[in-house]
Design a protein that fits this description.
Keywords: Disulfide bond, EGF-like domain, Membrane, Repeat, Signal, Transmembrane, Transmembrane helix
Number of helices: 14
Biased composition (Polar residues): 1226-1240
Strand content: 35-45%
Main location: membrane
Shape: elongated
Membrane topology: Single-pass type I membrane protein
Number of strands: 81
Family: Belongs to the neurexin family.
Structural class: mainly beta
Largest sheet: 9 strands, antiparallel
Helix content: under 10%
Distance between the termini: 91 Å
Length: 1247
């Protein structure tokens, strides 16, 4: 592209101008441009304070070296200042070591320059000759420069030479008196409909007023308004008095300080960037406002009718500078009186300012004492004040005629006056409302009748009024920290400049001729929606209801996945998931189905089977799915997950699906990126097939989908979509439903994902000199680092990142101490956590460190945290530039030996395994999780190692579930029975003698363990009966009084005995647990009848509920309910699993706890589908919650003669399906060589 020559010259000129804004500004000034608070002698005057000059005494030195001295320079005009350089007084021991830099347009109302928005002081010199230069982070526009010494060489005096650098500044200004405004009409032929830019500067002493009003052709308008010291950008719909205002954004604070503030509003189509000074907010306009053109712009206000619905209801009173609209200078056109500008009212093209001399009470030791003698019959005191604090003493003085001492102070943001005399409160008056004081200046007036008063304005370290007897005084109120201005006594303005020159009154630790108030909540340092509040010296963040914690609401209180919740021992339920921790993605309530995997289930608005019928005129049905999580959350879930799936089912009757093999598809679905996909559930991406086509088992082989056969019978194509990059299903288009007789039904299941690639991402460091390196960590204002480690080493550095001076490091400094150290420019700080037990125990330990502008904290496991407060008004930016070293340091010293896992920095997980693959001395992954998580397996479940985590083997436990925590219960009625048959561990011949049988007596049934839980209201009742094929038995029963008895016969030559286990009524409908161990039960080769009492109880039948039944390692009820096809059980009558035995406590981490998720993915058989038969997960969960938890126990006893016959005829059932040996739910050993199944001599276990 060829640019016009003048445009090229313009770019070059601008470039050179900007790059060369570093010309000396002070060296050519006359001595009259220099003033100071005092001078040691004529040769030490301020005019000699020029850099590298030796005139006079070689620089400026004041008469006294104290913190009330200053040096001031007046530049030729308002100038852009970009750098400052200082030097000590030549040939002396006089130099500054620390100073404040101040700027002003008028020589009054000074403004301090702040680095990083918090540091006001600059470091000075270390000798008299070297030059220390600072390039200002933000250039300053001013005509006056003032240096305030803070510290100087303790062996010398204050001494200074300096230079400022910068360049000329062009300024076009206009002044408004509160009733005038400029009306600008842009040329429509050159306006850009898709982009508008408005920029300008303003200054004012009033806190409210309309700055800009923009009208569009459509009748909509934009309003930029100053209200209570903040800028509001609003939209207004319609014209006239009925117009409706829509506030968009509020930005800035304390803007009524008579200093210049910069505004920029940029609209690019519907996106708006709104900037005030250094703070920018971005927002989206409503669609109806996105493409409108500006018709006219009013600056400084608008007509009276346009002010009626504004907040301020007044025009702007103050000055505007360099007003540009799409690079058009509005002020220049107004001065030239061009036709596009209309001036209304009294407008001046100069900016005249009233002299405003504020004073700042910056510390608890600040005070101002003014002598005052009132000559009239009455006296008055008036002032204006501004503060963040809700309490503090404003003034005190003695009343006339010894009437007491008056105290005027703030209490709970209200003004309160008390008169004290001889220890009593004579008067107590409260004025004002309890509204916040921090928005604006407040005026305060006080009158008194004739008296001689000594007035003191002091919040603390009060200079006491003179009292007779010299008894002194004490400030009983909180200190005042804030600004005061326009102090008047008897209507006369107090000359604070004379006070500053020590010609009048007395003061201590005041900042004269400036208001040093700082808004620490603008911009807010509170993250994630935390609400900011402040006092004079600090700010506070209210993190309630945000889901985040910490001093700045930085760290998430939720886990990043269901996998993480599982490994804290949580069971199925709803949990808040925060995928990126402290990152911008919001937490989301998600159902976690804790089975063998930790499934995350994301619902949408229609997971039910939806039926469609032929409809004339409708060629296609389009369904959109809105998920419970937003797009950003879903993408993070899918990216982080190990595997994701979503069921996609289509049931058809004369309704084709993909029109295979060669036709254009009638139906398709839309994935995450908005692309249409032509393959169906169970097939591979891009195949234009269904699952049956991939498996080559479609109803008609010439088609790749069952439904493409166009059959008049109901068919279906169902399967799982598992290509993560395409999930979730956002929309579904169904065609071929407009023919006569066409019917169809579809279902899109919830998105389900398991696994957490970040949670198990680990690296093993096997050499002290090895480390992984990553790009520089950027955590300037907020930094959080979390990880897990395990080691046998006593010390080592987990990670380190360096800057020029700044650094951050976390290390194991001893077996019982983790150390977090860093430096942001205020000197090294350390945070330590000591633990009672050693951390080098080869178990996983969790570390989380956080550093923000308020504090640094360190957490190790569940030990008490350590917190280190940040220094007040110190450096806040962490500036790093080296690589991030993990597992070691740049010096290769103090390296870490062991495993580091799930390393996250500001919510982003570092891929340790990827780097470990290519790094010597580091191995990806880290096995051995049962040592840390094995305790989560409950009820005798055993921990089994997995590559990514662990599982709980529940095969030897009567419980089931992820952690063997879920009881297995069933409700019995008369006629229901469960028979479990198992084999003796040794072969015995039926006709063997009792003597030979006794040889094996101590090898059989010695030390039996029996446990169960029951609930019943029936008495008497038989709960449990165990017998051999002979006459030995063990029975657990409730007698007629509901007492628990254990009846047993363990030897053939003795009668049955009864042990009374409980003397209270247990048939009370409550849950009871029974554990019996070390029962002696011997096998005797005799036969006979069942005990008469047992037979009688058996004949009564039983109604109740049984739970977690276990006999040694066998769980018969669990086998019958969960594995009836692969277990040696016989079930008679109806039997189904119930929650009647549940006694689990409420999960404290879950938002809502449930214990099953009956949303199973699978194909639907032939036949017409039943609409709503496939319920949504939420409906099923609600059903589970609605079940009344009632637990009872049942057992059915069977006669011994039947058992004996059963022994002869029983043949082991062939299992219908084999369960893998490594399954945690295998109810018994299926190995044919195992001793648990080796003989024909059997016994039976009945429930």
């Amino acid at each position: 592209m060829v640019l016009p020559l003048y445009l090229i010259f313009y770019f070059i000129a601008v470039s050179v101008s900007k790059e060369s804004c570093d010309s000396p500004l002070v060296s050519a000034l006359p001595q009259s441009a220099f003033t100071s608070s005092s001078e040691l002698s004529n040769s030490h005057g301020p005019g000699f304070a020029k850099l590298n000059r030796r005139d006079g005494a070689g620089g400026w030195s004041p008469l006294n070296s104290n913190k009330y001295q200053w040096l001031e320079i007046k530049l030729e005009q308002r100038t852009e200042i970009t750098a400052i350089a200082t030097q000590g007084r030549y040939g002396s021991s006089d130099w500054l070591t620390r100073y404040l830099l101040m700027f002003s347009d008028t020589g009054h109302n000074w403004r301090p320059y702040r680095q990083e928005d918090s540091i006001g002081a600059f470091s000075g010199n270390s000798n008299a000759d070297s030059v220390v230069m600072y390039k200002l982070q933000q250039p300053v526009i001013a005509q006056y420069i003032r240096i305030l010494p803070l510290h100087w060489n303790p062996n010398g005096r204050i001494g200074l030479r300096l230079e400022a650098y910068g360049c000329q500044y062009k300024s076009d200004v206009v002044s408004f008196d509160g009733s005038a405004h400029l009306l600008f009409r842009p040329d429509p032929s050159v306006s850009l409909a898709d982009r508008d830019v408005l920029s300008m500067n303003f200054k004012t002493l009033l806190n409210s007023g309309m700055l800009v009003h923009m009208e569009e052709h459509s009748g909509h308008s934009f309003t930029l308004e100053l209200f209570r010291g903040k800028l509001l950008l609003q939209l207004r719909k319609g014209r006239g008095s009925s117009a409706d205002f829509h506030p968009l954004v509020s930005l800035g604070s304390l803007l009524d300080d008579q200093h210049w503030h910069h505004i920029r509003v940029e609209r690019i189509r519907g996106l708006v960037n709104f900037t005030v000074d250094k703070n920018t907010q971005q927002f989206q306009l409503p669609e109806s406002w996105s493409h409108s053109e500006i018709n006219e712009i009013s600056f400084g206000g608008t007509s009276a009718a346009g002010l009626q619905k504004s907040h301020s209801r007044r025009n702007f009173h103050g000055c505007l500078e360099n007003v540009l609209y799409n690079d058009i200078s509005v002020i220049e056109r107004a001065e030239e009186q061009q036709l596009s500008i209309t001036v209304s009212g009294n407008v001046s093209f100069t900016c005249t300012e009233s002299i405003d001399v504020p004073v700042t009470f910056a510390s608890p030791g600040s005070f101002l004492a003014l002598p005052w003698v009132s000559g009239g019959e009455s006296a008055s005191v008036c002032l204006q004040f501004r503060t963040w604090n809700r309490a503090g003493l404003l003034m005190t003085f003695d009343l006339q005629h010894n009437a007491g001492t008056l105290w005027l102070y703030l209490s709970e943001a209200r003004a309160r006056l008390q008169i004290h005399k001889t220890g009593r409160i004579m008067t107590d008056i409260t004025a004002g409302s309890a509204h916040a004081l921090w928005d604006i200046y407040h005026s305060l007036s006080l009158f008194d009748s004739k008296s001689r008063i000594h007035l003191s304005l002091a919040p603390a370290a009060l200079r006491c009024p003179d009292t007779e007897g010299g008894s002194g005084c004490r400030n009983p109120f909180s200190v005042f920290q804030g600004c005061m201005r326009l102090i008047r006594t008897d209507g006369a303005l107090v000359d604070l400049i004379r006070v500053q020159q020590m010609l009048f009154g007395n003061f201590s630790d005041l900042q004269m001729d400036m208001c040093g108030i700082v808004d620490r909540c603008s911009p807010s340092r509170c993250e994630h929606g935390g609400r900011c509040s402040q006092s004079w010296s600090t700010f506070h963040c209210n993190c309630s209801a945000t889901g985040y914690s910490g001093a700045t609401c930085h760290s998430s209180i939720y886990e990043a996945s269901c996998e993480a919740y599982k490994h804290k021992g949580n069971t199925s339920g709803f949990y808040y998931i925060d995928m990126d921790g402290s990152g911008p993605i919001k937490p989301q309530l998600i159902y976690c189905n804790m089975s063998d995997k930790a499934w995350m289930v994301i619902q949408h608005n229609n997971t039910e089977l939806t039926k469609l019928k032929a409809s004339s005129g409708i060629n296609q049905h389009l369904a959109h799915f809105n998920y419970s999580a937003d797009a950003e959350q879903i993408q993070a879930i899918i990216t982080q997950a190990e595997y994701c799936e979503q069921e996609l089912s289509y049931h058809c009757k004369k309704s084709r699906l993909l029109n295979t093999p060669d036709g254009a598809p009638f139906s398709w679905w839309v994935g995450r990126s908005g692309e249409a996909h032509m393959y169906w559930g169970g097939a591979v991406p891009g195949s234009q097939q269904c699952a049956c086509g991939l498996q080559e088992n479609c109803v008609h082989p010439e088609h790749f989908c069952n439904c493409d056969a166009d059959s008049k019978e109901w068919l279906n194509d169902s399967g799982l979509l598992s290509h993560k990059e395409h999930l979730p299903v956002r929309a579904l288009a169904v065609g071929d439903i407009n023919r006569s007789g066409s019917e169809a039904a579809y279902r899109v299941g919830p998105l389900q994902c398991y696994g957490d690639n970040n949670f198990w991402n680990a690296a093993y460091f096997n050499k002290e000199t090895s480390y992984l390196h990553f790009p520089t960590f950027h955590g300037e204002l907020s930094a959080d680092i979390s990880f897990l480690f395990k080691t046998s080493s006593s010390s080592g550095v987990f990670l380190e990142n360096l800057g020029i001076k700044d650094f951050i490091r976390i290390e194991l400094s001893s077996p019982t101490q983790v150390l977090f150290s860093f430096d942001v420019g205020n000197g090294p700080l350390e945070v330590k956590v000591e633990t009672a037990s050693a951390l080098n125990d080869e178990r996983w330990h969790h570390v989380r460190a956080e550093r923000n502008v308020k504090e640094a904290s360190l957490y190790v496991d569940h030990h008490p945290s350590a917190v280190q407060k940040a220094p007040a008004d110190g450096h806040i930016h962490l500036q790093l530039n080296s690589q991030l070293f993990v597992g070691g340091t740049a010096s290769r010293q103090k390296g870490f030996l062991g495993c580091i896992r799930s390393l996250k920095l500001n919510g982003k997980t570092l891929d340790l395994e990827e780097r470990a693959e290519i790094t010597p001395g580091v191995t990806p992954g880290c096995p051995g999780h049962c040592s840390s998580y094995g305790d989560l397996c409950q009820n005798h479940g055993s921990c089994v190692e997995d590559h990514s985590g662990f599982t709980c083997d529940c095969s030897l436990s009567p419980f089931t579930g992820t952690f063997c925590h879920k009881d297995v219960s069933a409700f019995f009625k008369p006629g229901t029975s469960v028979t479990y048959t198992f084999k003796e561990p040794y072969k015995l011949n039926r006709n063997v003698s009792a003597q030979s049988s006794s040889i094996y007596s101590d090898l059989t049934l010695r030390g039996e363990n029996v446990s169960l839980s029951f609930r019943t209201s029936q008495a008497p009742a038989l709960l449990l009966y165990v017998s051999s094929y002979y006459r030995e038995f063990l029975a657990i029963l409730l007698n007629r009084n509901g007492h628990l008895d254990v009846k047993y016969k363990l030897q053939h030559n003795r009668d049955a005995e009864v042990f009374r286990a409980s003397g209270r009524n247990l048939a009370n409908g409550q849950l009871h647990h029974l554990i019996e161990t070390q029962t002696q039960l011997f096998l005797i080769a005799e036969s006979g009848e069942v005990d008469p009492e047992i037979a009688r109880l058996n004949a009564l039948g039983f109604t109740g509920c049984l739970s977690v039944v276990q006999f040694n390692s066998i769980s018969p009820l669990k086998a019958a309910l969960l594995y009836p096809d692969t277990s040696p059980v016989i079930v008679t009558g109806p039997l189904s699993e119930s929650s009647c035995g549940s006694s689990l406590p409420t999960n404290p981490y879950a938002a809502e706890t449930t214990h099953s998720l009956a949303d199973h993915v699978g194909t639907v058989g032939t036949g017409e589908p039943i609409v709503n038969a496939i319920n949504s997960d939420s409906a099923l969960i609600g059903g589970v919650i609605a079940v009344v938890i009632f637990v009872s126990l049942a057992a059915l006893a069977v006669m011994a003669r039947f058992l004996y016959r059963r022994k002869e005829t029983f043949q082991p059932q062939e299992p219908k399906a084999e369960k893998t040996d490594d399954s945690p739910e295998t109810p018994f050993n299926t190995d044919p060589n195992s001793q648990s199944i080796i003989s024909d001599n059997q016994k039976e276990y009945f429930i």
